[in-house]
Design goal:
heterotrimer; A mainly alpha (505); B mainly alpha (486); C mainly alpha (502); B: 486 residues; mainly alpha; two-stranded antiparallel sheet; globular; C: 502 residues; 2 domains; 23 helices
C-alpha cells in the first residue's frame, strides 16, 4: 500500500497541532503578560527553524508523491461503501505543485512579516495545518473525501483570517465562515443527489453519471448541479456568494491574504472541476440552462470584480476584488466545456496563484516597512523600494495579459476556447468581457507602478528602506521570476493540461 | 429483565434513608448502583432473552410486561452507556448546588424508568412508564426551587401530561382496533376491524403522534424545553438531551413502526401533515437558537431542532428512514450531552450563563472549549465526526422516498446545519478570539474542571470520532433491524 | 334461609337506632360507639358479600314477613353488597380521619348530635342500596337529605348556615321532583315494588301506551336525582356545602352521599324502568351532554378557585360529570365504568379532603393557596397523600383514576357519534385536572421564603403526632393503589353484580 503518500498530509497537520497546543499551554500559565508579543528571540529562532524544516520536508514529500506515479491509497470506510480514498491524478499533481511552491514562498516570507503581527505560534500552527489539509484535498480520490477536506479547510483557515483579533477581523472571519458553510452545504445538497444517480462517487474522467438512474429526474439533477456550482463557487468568489472575499482577504495578515487569494480560492475551482468533469460529465451539462447561467454569472463576476477593484482606494482590498474577478476567468473557462478553454482556465489557475501571491506579498512589505495601506499614499514607493516594485510590475503585467508574461498565454487560450465553443452569443461576449476586464486591470494595477517610480517633482526621497527585508524580497522575486519564465516557456505546462483536457471531454 | 428496571428504582428510593457517613460514601454507593445496572443491561443486550416477561396484570387484557427487541436494545444501550458517565459528572457539579440526597434519589429512579420505556412490550406498559417519567423528572427540574424553576416545572408538567392525555386516546384505539396491544414489527392493526374507519384512525394517529411528540419538543409544543434549561446541567444534559427527549422519539418510533404500522400510514395525509410539523421544527429550533443569548437555552433550542431530524426519519416511514432516525438518535445523544457538559463545566467554574460573558475563556479553559468546538463540528456535520454520518443517512432516506416534501426536508436539514455552524462556532470564536484589547486579568482564577468532569467529556469526544470514522457496523446493524419495514 | 341473609336488615335497623342512642351518650362515648357500629356493619356486609358471591344469585328478603305488593322488600345482589362494603369502609376511614378536627371545631354539647346525624346517614345509605321498593327509597332519600344538612350545619358559622340552607332548598327541590316522578310512575303502573314496576313498564313500552307520561316520569326522577347529586347545571350548592363544613363532613358528603343518589338512579334505570327502555328514551343523551359539560366546566371553575377546599369541591362536580357521561354512553361497559368510578372517586375524594385539612392545619388554618406554600414539608404524610390523590384524579398509571379513564375510553370507542366527544372531553379534562391539581402539588412543595417563614411560624406535624389520622390517610392511599393495580377482581365482581342487578 502506498500509505507513504499521506506523509505530506500528516506531517504538517501534526506539526501545526503541536504548535497550537504549545501556544495554548503557554497562555494558560501566563497572566497579565502581553500574549501578542511573548516570544523571545531564541524562541522565535527555534520556531522559524522548526516551521522551515517542516515546510521544506513536506514540500519534498508532496512533490515526490505527486510525480512518482499514479499512487492511490484507500483508508477505512467512512460510511457503507464510501471509503476515504486518495488518488493522485493529473489534476491533483498540478494543484499540489503550485500549492507547494506558493506555500513555501509565503512561509519563508512570513518569518519576517509576522514579527510585526504577533501571536506567531498560533499563526504558524494554523498555517501548517491548512497546508496539510490542502494537500489532502488535492489528493482526494472521491467526492466525499474531497468534501471532508473542503470543510476542514474552511474551519482551519478561519483563524488565519481572524488573526489580528480586531473586531473587524472577527466579523470578517464569521462572514467567511457563513458564506463558506453556505456554499459547502449547497455542495452537500448536490452530493446527496449525485450519490443517488452516479455509478460511483470516485472521480472518473468524463463523469460517472448513470443515465438510467437520472432519467425522469433531469430537472432535479440540473438544479442540484447548479446548487453545487454556486456552492463551490462561493469559495472561488463567484457571484452571488462572493461578498465575503473582499472583506476577509484584506483584513488577514498579508501572508495569509496571499495564501487565501492564491491558493485557497483555487480549492473552490478544484471542487468545480471535479464535479463537472469527473462526476457529472460534460455531456450532461452541455447546452443546458445550467451552462448558460453559469457563464453569465462568471462573466458578471469578472466585470464586476474589475470595476470594483478599479474604484477601491485601499490597496489590499483592491487586490481582493481583483481576485474575485480573476478567479472567475478560470470559472468562465471551465463553463465553456471546451478543451482549449479548459486549458486556459487551468493555466490561469497556476499563473494567477503566483501572480496574486506576489502582489499580496508586495502589499505586505509596504505595510511592514511604511504602514501605508491606501493606494494614493504609495507615491514614490518605487524610489524607496525599487526591487520590490519591479517585481510588482512584472506580476501586474502578467495579470493584465501582456506578452511575454504568463497571463497572456492563459488569456489567449481562454479567448480561443470561447470563440470555438458552441455557446451562442457567449462566443463573442466572453472575449469582449475579458478584454474590457484586462483594460480595467491595467487601470487598477499600473497606477501603483507609475506613481511609484514617477512620483512627481515635489517628492522627498527616503532611501534605504529596502535594507533588512531580504527575507521578504527573495520569495517575492522568485514568484515574479516564475511569472516571467512560465510566460516565456508555457508549452510544457500547456500541453500537459491540454492532454488532460482531452481525457475528460 | 425486570431486575434492571427495579434495581435503580429501589436503590434510588433508599438513598435518602441510608446513613451515609460522608459525601464520598454516598457518591460511591450511587455510582456502584448505576454502574452495576449498566453492566447488567449490557449482559441482557448481549444475550437477548426471547421470552417476554409479565410483571403483573392490571386488568383483563392490560398488563405491565417487558420484552427486548432490536429497537429497545438501541435505546437501552444509549441510556445505560451514558448514565454512569453522567452520574460521575453530576457528582462534581452538584457540589455547587446542594440538596444532593433527593436529587440523586430521583436521578437514579429515572434511570430505572427510562429502561422501563425501552423494554416495554406493549403500548400500555410504555404509556405507564412514560407518565411516570414525567413525574419523576419533575423534582429534578424543580431542584433549585427558585421562582424560575417552579414556573419551568409547571410548564413542563402541563405540556407533558397534556400530551400524554392525547396519546392516551391513541393507546385506547390501538387496544380496540389492533389484534394485540404488543409491539409487533410492521404494526398490529387488524384490517378486519379497521375497514371503513381509516380516516378516523389516521386522525387518531396524528393526535397520538402530537401527544407523544410533546416530549420531543416538536413545534408548537416545545416551549417547555428551553425553560427547563434552568435546571442543573446534569439534568438538562442527561434528561433533556438524552433520556426524556429520546424516550419521546422512541415512543414515536414504536407507535409508527410497531403499532399503527407504516404500510397503513405511508402516503396518507397524516404523513404529510406530520412532515410539515417536523420540517417547521427543524428550521424553527435553529432560528431561535441563533437569537438566544443564554448559553443553555441556545443548546436547548438546538436539541429541539435536532430531535426533529430524528422525527423526520421516523415520518419518512421507510426502512432507510428508520435507519437514519436511529443513527441520529444515537449520535445526537453523544454530541448533545457533550455540548451540555461543556456548558455545565463553564457555568460551574465561572458562574457565567450568558454567551456574551464567555469572551476569552478559551485561554483559561482550553480543554473544555476545544471539546466544545469538536462537539460543534459534529453537530454541524463535518465529515469525520458522527453528525455527518447521520445527516448522510437521513438525506439518503429522504431522496429514496417518493414523498414530495422529502426534498424540502433535506433542504431544511442543510439550512439547519448552516445555522448550527453559526450558533455553535460563534461561541468558540468568542472564547478563543475575544479581541485585541481584551483584558485577560479579568479571568484570573478560572481553570479547567477536575477529572470527574473531564473524563466523560474526553470519552464523548473519542466516541464522536469513532462513530464518525467507523460507523459501518452500527449502520449495518440498524439496517438489519429495520428490514421488517415494508 | 341463612342467618347471613338477615344481615342487611339488621344493619339498617342497627344504624337507625344508633342515632337516638347516641343522643343520650356523651361526646366521647358516642364517638367510640359510632366507630364500633360502622365496623360491625362493615363486617356484616362483608359476610353478605361472601355469601352472595358463593351462591352467585341475588336474593330477596321480605321485611316484616309481609309479601309483596303490600310489604317491603330488600334485594341483595353482588353489586349492592360491594357498594355497601365500600361505603362502610370509606365512612369509617373518614370518621377516623376527622376525629381531631371534630373535637376542635364542634362545640362539646353538639358533638353527639354529629354522631346521630352520621348514623342516620349510614342507615339511609344502606337502605338506598338495598331497597327494592320505590317509596321506601324516597323516604330514605329524605332522611339522607336531612342528616346531610345536619352534617353541614354542625359547625356553626354564618357560611355553613347559608350553605346548609342552599343545600336544603336544592335538595328538597330534587326530592320534590323525585316524588312527582314516583307518583306518575305509580299511577301508570300501579306498583311500588321495583321488580313489579319493571314488568309493567316493559308492557307499556311494548304497547306504546302512556309514552309521554312515562318519559316525563323518567325525566323527573332523573332530574331530581341529578339535582341532588350535583350534576351540571344543578351544582351550585356543592362548593359551599363541601367547602365550608367540617372535614369529615365534606369527605362523607362528597364520597358517599352523592354516590348514594347516583346508585339509586342506577337502580331506577336498571330495575325500575329497565335498561332497554332507558336506552330507547332520550334521557341518556341529555345526561351525556350534561355530564360532559360538567366535566369541563367543573374543572374550569376549579382552576379559578383560590381556596383549596372549594377547589376540591368543584373537582367533585367534574368527577360526577364523568359518572353521568358513562351512563350517557348507554352501553354495559359505560355503566360499568361509571360504577367503578364511583368507587374510585369515593376513595380519592375523601383522601383529598382529609389531606387538605391536614395541610391547612399546618398553614395557620388558612385554605388560600398562598398560605399553603411549602405545606408539604411541614406535614410530610399529608403532602404525600395529597400528591397521590391528585395523581389519581389526573389519571396517572398505577392508580385508580387510570383504570377508570381506560374503562371510559374503551366504553366510548366504537360508539357511532358519542366517541369523539367523549375522548376529547377525557383528554381536555385530564389537562385541566393537571392544571389545578398538580399546580397545587407543586405549590405545597415549594419552600417558603425565609422572611415569611420567620414571620408565620407555622407548626410542623409528624406522623407520630397524629397516628389515627395518618393511619386513615395511609389506608386511603393503599385503597387507591389497590384499585389501580388489582382492579381485575373488583371489575369482575362488578360485572357479575350488574348482570344480576336488573
Amino acid at each position: 500500500m502506498n500509505a507513504w503518500i499521506l506523509l505530506p498530509v500528516i506531517l504538517p497537520a501534526l506539526s501545526g497541532i503541536c504548535l497550537l497546543c504549545s501556544s495554548l499551554r503557554s497562555h494558560l500559565h501566563s497572566s497579565g503578560v502581553d500574549v501578542w508579543n511573548d516570544l523571545k528571540e531564541e524562541e522565535r529562532g527555534r520556531l522559524h527553524r522548526f516551521v522551515g524544516i517542516v515546510l521544506v520536508l513536506t514540500a519534498v514529500l508532496a512533490l515526490l508523491a505527486a510525480w512518482s506515479g499514479e499512487h492511490e491509497v484507500r483508508l477505512f470506510e467512512l460510511m457503507e461503501g464510501i471509503p476515504v480514498y486518495f488518488r493522485i491524478d493529473a489534476v491533483g499533481k498540478m494543484f499540489v505543485t503550485f500549492v507547494t511552491i506558493v506555500w513555501v514562498a509565503v512561509g519563508f516570507y512570513s518569518f519576517l512579516y509576522m514579527k510585526h503581527e504577533g501571536e506567531e505560534r498560533r499563526f504558524f500552527g494554523f498555517f501548517l495545518l491548512v497546508y496539510g489539509v490542502l494537500i489532502a484535498l488535492d489528493f482526494a480520490g472521491n467526492l466525499v473525501t474531497m468534501y471532508l477536506f473542503y470543510e476542514l479547510m474552511t474551519l482551519s483557515s478561519m483563524p488565519l483570517v481572524m488573526h489580528n483579533g480586531s473586531k473587524e477581523a472577527i466579523m470578517a472571519a464569521l462572514k467567511y465562515l457563513f458564506y463558506s458553510m453556505c456554499g459547502a452545504y449547497l455542495g452537500l445538497f448536490g452530493i446527496f443527489f449525485l450519490y443517488r444517480c452516479c455509478d460511483t462517487l470516485t472521480f472518473t474522467a468524463g463523469g460517472s453519471l448513470n443515465a438510467a438512474l437520472v432519467s425522469g429526474r433531469e430537472g432535479t439533477m440540473l438544479i442540484a448541479v447548479m446548487a453545487m456550482l454556486i456552492g463551490f463557487g462561493a469559495k472561488a468568489g463567484m457571484f452571488p456568494l462572493h461578498a465575503w472575499l473582499p472583506t476577509a482577504h484584506p483584513v488577514a495578515p498579508s501572508p495569509a491574504s496571499a495564501a487565501l487569494s492564491a491558493v485557497i480560492v483555487k480549492s473552490g475551482v478544484l471542487a468545480v472541476v471535479r464535479v463537472v468533469y469527473y462526476m457529472v460529465g460534460t455531456e450532461f451539462l452541455r447546452g443546458t440552462w445550467v451552462q448558460t447561467v453559469w457563464m453569465t454569472l462568471t462573466l458578471l463576476t469578472v466585470f464586476l470584480g474589475s470595476l470594483l477593484a478599479f474604484r477601491e482606494p485601499v490597496f489590499k482590498k483592491r487586490l481582493a476584488y481583483s481576485t474575485v474577478s480573476q478567479v472567475s476567468y478560470v470559472l468562465f473557462g471551465l463553463s465553456l466545456l471546451q478543451p482549449q478553454a479548459f486549458t486556459g482556465a487551468l493555466l490561469h489557475t497556476v499563473f494567477h496563484a503566483f501572480i496574486k501571491s506576489a502582489l499580496f506579498l508586495t502589499a505586505g512589505i509596504i505595510i511592514y516597512q511604511t504602514g501605508k495601506t491606501r493606494v494614493d499614499e504609495l507615491r514614490g514607493i518605487g524610489k524607496e523600494m525599487p526591487c520590490m516594485l519591479w517585481c510588482y510590475t512584472f506580476a501586474s503585467l502578467g495579470l493584465i495579459g501582456i506578452p511575454p508574461m504568463s497571463g497572456f498565454v492563459s488569456k489567449w487560450y481562454l479567448a480561443q476556447g470561447a470563440l470555438q465553443a458552441s455557446v451562442g452569443a457567449f462566443r463573442y461576449l466572453g472575449p469582449a468581457v475579458l478584454l474590457a476586464s484586462a483594460l480595467l486591470t491595467a487601470g487598477y494595477l499600473l497606477p501603483v507602478t507609475i506613481n511609484g517610480f514617477l512620483p512627481g517633482k515635489d517628492w522627498k526621497v527616503r532611501s534605504g528602506e529596502e535594507n533588512g527585508i531580504q527575507m521578504m524580497l527573495i520569495p517575492l522575486a522568485v514568484l515574479a521570476a516564475l511569472t516571467i519564465l512560465l510566460g516565456l516557456f508555457p508549452n510544457p505546462l500547456a500541453s500537459y493540461i491540454y492532454e488532460l483536457a482531452m481525457t475528460v471531454m | 429483565m425486570a431486575v434492571v428496571i427495579l434495581l435503580p428504582i429501589l436503590f434510588g428510593v433508599l438513598i435518602p434513608l441510608f446513613p451515609f457517613k460522608n459525601r464520598a460514601q454516598m457518591m460511591f454507593y450511587i455510582e456502584t448502583v448505576v454502574l452495576v445496572n449498566s453492566l447488567l443491561v449490557l449482559c441482557l443486550l448481549l444475550n437477548r432473552p426471547e421470552q417476554a416477561f409479565v410483571l403483573f396484570r392490571l386488568n383483563g387484557n392490560l398488563s405491565i410486561s417487558f420484552q427486548l427487541d432490536g429497537l429497545g436494545t438501541v435505546f437501552a444501550g444509549i441510556v445505560s452507556a451514558l448514565w454512569p458517565l453522567a452520574t460521575l459528572y453530576a457528582f462534581e457539579y452538584m457540589k455547587h448546588e446542594g440538596h444532593e440526597t433527593y436529587f440523586f434519589m430521583f436521578y437514579t429512579i429515572t434511570y430505572g424508568i427510562t429502561l422501563g420505556i425501552a423494554f416495554s412490550e406493549d403500548i400500555v406498559t410504555m404509556y405507564c412508564f412514560y407518565e411516570m417519567l414525567t413525574l419523576v423528572t419533575l423534582p429534578l427540574i424543580m431542584h433549585t426551587l427558585s421562582r424560575e424553576a417552579i414556573l419551568a416545572s409547571r410548564t413542563y408538567l402541563y405540556y407533558s401530561l397534556g400530551g400524554a392525555a392525547f396519546a392516551f386516546i391513541g393507546m385506547i384505539f390501538i387496544l380496540n382496533y389492533g389484534a394485540t396491544a404488543n409491539f409487533v414489527p410492521g404494526g398490529v392493526l387488524d384490517p378486519a376491524k379497521t375497514a371503513g374507519s381509516e380516516n378516523l384512525l389516521l386522525l387518531i394517529y396524528v393526535l397520538c403522534f402530537l401527544g407523544f411528540s410533546v416530549k420531543t419538543a416538536m413545534w408548537p409544543f416545545g416551549a417547555w424545553l428551553p425553560k427547563a434549561g434552568v435546571a442543573p446541567t446534569p439534568v438538562t444534559a442527561l434528561l433533556h438531551a438524552v433520556a426524556v427527549v429520546k424516550a419521546g422519539a422512541f415512543t414515536l418510533m414504536r407507535i409508527t413502526y410497531y403499532s399503527f404500522g407504516t404500510e397503513f400510514l405511508r402516503g396518507t395525509w397524516a404523513q404529510t401533515v406530520l412532515m410539515v410539523f417536523v420540517i417547521i421544527t427543524i428550521v424553527y429550533g435553529c432560528s431561535r437558537a441563533l437569537k438566544e443569548t443564554h448559553f443553555k437555552r441556545r443548546l436547548a433550542y438546538s436539541t429541539m431542532s435536532n430531535l426533529s431530524y430524528i422525527l423526520f426519519g421516523v415520518v419518512l416511514m421507510s426502512p432507510l428512514g428508520l435507519v437514519g432516525a436511529l443513527s441520529h438518535m444515537v449520535f445526537h445523544a453523544v454530541m448533545k450531552i457533550c455540548s451540555f457538559f461543556c456548558a455545565g463545566a463553564v457555568i460551574y467554574k465561572t458562574g457565567r450563563n450568558y454567551i456574551h460573558e464567555l469572551n476569552g475563556l478559551g485561554r483559561k479553559m482550553p480543554r473544555v472549549f476545544v471539546i466544545f468546538a469538536i462537539s460543534g463540528f459534529a453537530l454541524m456535520g463535518v465529515p469525520g465526526l458522527c453528525g455527518f454520518v447521520s445527516k448522510w443517512n437521513l438525506a439518503k432516506a429522504a431522496l429514496a422516498s417518493t414523498h414530495p416534501l422529502a426534498v424540502i426536508g433535506v433542504a431544511a436539514l442543510l439550512i439547519s446545519a448552516l445555522l448550527t455552524a453559526i450558533y455553535m462556532l460563534t461561541i468558540v470564536v468568542r472564547a478563543f478570539f475575544p479581541g485585541r484589547d481584551f483584558d485577560y486579568s479579568s479571568l484570573d482564577g478560572i481553570e479547567d474542571p477536575g477529572w470527574m468532569m473531564l473524563l466523560p467529556l474526553v470519552l464523548f469526544v473519542i466516541t464522536m470520532f469513532l462513530f464518525g470514522l467507523h460507523s459501518a457496523p452500527l449502520i449495518r446493524a440498524f439496517t438489519q433491524l429495520a428490514a421488517f419495514v415494508k | 334461609m341463612e342467618f347471613v341473609q338477615n344481615f342487611p336488615f339488621i344493619c339498617i335497623i342497627l344504624s337507625l337506632f344508633s342515632g337516638p342512642l347516641s343522643s343520650v351518650l356523651s361526646g366521647k362515648k358516642a364517638k367510640w360507639w359510632n366507630a364500633f357500629v360502622i365496623t360491625a356493619i362493615g363486617l356484616m356486609n362483608i359476610a353478605v358479600l361472601a355469601f352472595v358471591v358463593s351462591t352467585g344469585e341475588p336474593y330477596v328478603y321480605r321485611m316484616g314477613h309481609f309479601s309483596a305488593p303490600w310489604g317491603n322488600e330488600i334485594r341483595v345482589g353482588i353489586l349492592e353488597a360491594v357498594m355497601a362494603v365500600f361505603f362502610c369502609v370509606t365512612m369509617l376511614l373518614c370518621m377516623l380521619g376527622g376525629i381531631a378536627e371534630r373535637e376542635e371545631e364542634i362545640e362539646e354539647s353538639k358533638q353527639n348530635l354529629y354522631y346521630i346525624m352520621v348514623n342516620l346517614l349510614l342507615s339511609s345509605l344502606l337502605a338506598l342500596i338495598y331497597t327494592n321498593d320505590l317509596f321506601t327509597a324516597y323516604v330514605f332519600v329524605e332522611i339522607n337529605t336531612i342528616s346531610a344538612c345536619g352534617l353541614i350545619m354542625i359547625r356553626q358559622n354564618g357560611r355553613t348556615i347559608v350553605a346548609a340552607t342552599r343545600y336544603m332548598i336544592m335538595s328538597l327541590l330534587g326530592s320534590g321532583m323525585l316524588l312527582l316522578g314516583i307518583c306518575f310512575l305509580y299511577s301508570i303502573t300501579g306498583h311500588l315494588l321495583m321488580s313489579n314496576i319493571q314488568q309493567a313498564v316493559w308492557n307499556l313500552h311494548e304497547t306504546g301506551m302512556y309514552q309521554v307520561p312515562l318519559l316525563v316520569a323518567v325525566g323527573l326522577m332523573s332530574v331530581g336525582l341529578a339535582v341532588k347529586s350535583a350534576l351540571f347545571p344543578f351544582h351550585g350548592w356543592l362548593p359551599d356545602a363541601y367547602g365550608y363544613s367540617t372535614v369529615s363532613s365534606a369527605a362523607i358528603l362528597s364520597s358517599l352521599v352523592s354516590k348514594g343518589y347516583i346508585f339509586l338512579l342506577l337502580k331506577i334505570f336498571y330495575r325500575v324502568i329497565g335498561f332497554e327502555v332507558i336506552k330507547d328514551s332520550k334521557v341518556i343523551h341529555v345526561l351525556f351532554v350534561f355530564g360532559i359539560a360538567g366535566m369541563i366546566i367543573g374543572s374550569i371553575d376549579a382552576i379559578r378557585e383560590n381556596s383549596i377546599r372549594r377547589m376540591i369541591a368543584y373537582s367533585s362536580v367534574a368527577q360526577i360529570g364523568y359518572i353521568y357521561m358513562g351512563f350517557g354512553l348507554g352501553t354495559e361497559l359505560g355503566v360499568l365504568s361509571s360504577v367503578f368510578h364511583i368507587l374510585c372517586h369515593a376513595a380519592t375524594k375523601a383522601l383529598l379532603f382529609l389531606s387538605a385539612s391536614s395541610l391547612t392545619e399546618v398553614s395557620g388554618d388558612s385554605t388560600s393557596f398562598f398560605d399553603l406554600t411549602g405545606a408539604g414539608y411541614r406535614n410530610k404524610a399529608a403532602g404525600l397523600a395529597f400528591t397521590v390523590g391528585s395523581l389519581s384524579m389526573v389519571g396517572f398509571p398505577m392508580l385508580g383514576g387510570f383504570i377508570s379513564k381506560i374503562l371510559f375510553a374503551q366504553a366510548a370507542v366504537g360508539h357511532a357519534y358519542k366517541m369523539l366527544p367523549t375522548l376529547i372531553a377525557l383528554a381536555v379534562s385530564t389537562i385541566l385536572n393537571t392544571v389545578y391539581f398538580l399546580k397545587t402539588v407543586i405549590r405545597i412543595y415549594t419552600p417558603m421564603r425565609s422572611e415569611e417563614k420567620k414571620e408565620k411560624q407555622y407548626k410542623l406535624v409528624t406522623m407520630g403526632q397524629q397516628p389515627v389520622k395518618s393511619a386513615a390517610l395511609l389506608c386511603f392511599v393503599a385503597l387507591n393503589l389497590v384499585l389501580g393495580l388489582f382492579s381485575q377482581p373488583i371489575l369482575t365482581l362488578l360485572e357479575r353484580g350488574l348482570s344480576m342487578f336488573a
